[in-house]
Amino acid sequence: MSVDDRPDQKRGRRLTYHRHVSVGEIIGEGRTSTVYAWGTDAVVKVPKPHIPDGWLAVERTFVDAVGAVGAPAPDVGGTVTVEGRESVVFERIEGDSMWDVLQHEPARQHELMEQFGALQREIHALSLPSGVPDAVARMRSKLGEIVGLRAEEHDEASDVLDSLPRGAAVLHGDLHPGNVIVTDAGLVAIDWFDVSIGHPHADVLRTELLLRPLPDGPPLHLPGATHVLLGELHEAYRQVFADVVDGNAERWRPVVALCRLSEAAELDAQDLWHAWRTRPSRTESVA
Predict the structure, then answer these.
(1) To which H or E segment does residue 82 belong?
(2) Strand runs (DSSP E) across 6-65, as ranges?
(3) pTM here?
(4) What are 152-186's pLDDT values in tens digits?
(5) By three-state DSSP, how is residue 133 classified?
(6) Closest by alpha carbon to 36, among 87, 112, 103?
(7) Cα dist. 40→1, 7, 23, 43, 237 in Å?
(8) What are phi and psi of 186, to 5 degrees?
(9) Cα torsion for 31, 81, 28, 181, to the nearest 10°?
């Protein structure tokens, strides 16, 4: 294991870590990476074998960029090599994930969803960071990765993207309770790989999809979820963003669902395909 242990300066603070620290216990695990303790005040995020080299270095750049404009995100350290893979050291945020809190204290769901919504709006209101990609460009790239999307459907999805309003807000891109840490000082968002600059409606409809109950078991990003709990959270979230969901879902959800399909992350993608293939006609969309 080797490490570049030059600390990074960020927002006036310095995250330090040491060359001879050993990887500790698992702190968290997702589809793309495993997070281990790294000393007493940091964690190291290690990509899984199927993740390309350089993936986490990109996320490191993005977290630095949003942190520079005051995003509620962890501080970033340097890169290290763990088991032959380039990995990144982040500040260790003391607290439980919002998903863990919701599972153990379901009575707090409305309170926590209000806080969650406030966090998402806070992110949308940030000054624009440098080096963060355009949301439409990222979505268009994802359309090209979908297995089973016919050429004419791809062309129509591109036309839908072109017809949607552009925006100039910071979008987390993958915000759900598993990517939020509840701390004594407030909420902190993690996993910023999908951050982009675009219209807030895309971010809200993405989160709504991530909270929907699935027909064949809990989604991979919210392990242990019951159909009842997810149904309640989904409805609570829709209430927080009723102004967005009620008036804009038909325009945004079909293409947001397609982009989710490109990630091959669902146990059952049938409802994502349904969201696309029951989209309004082009005439209805324009009207």
Answers:
(1) strand 76-82
(2) 9-10, 13-14, 23-29, 33-38, 42-47
(3) 0.89
(4) 999 999 999 999 999 999 999 999 999 999 999 99
(5) coil
(6) 87
(7) 18, 16, 11, 8, 35
(8) 130, -165
(9) -100
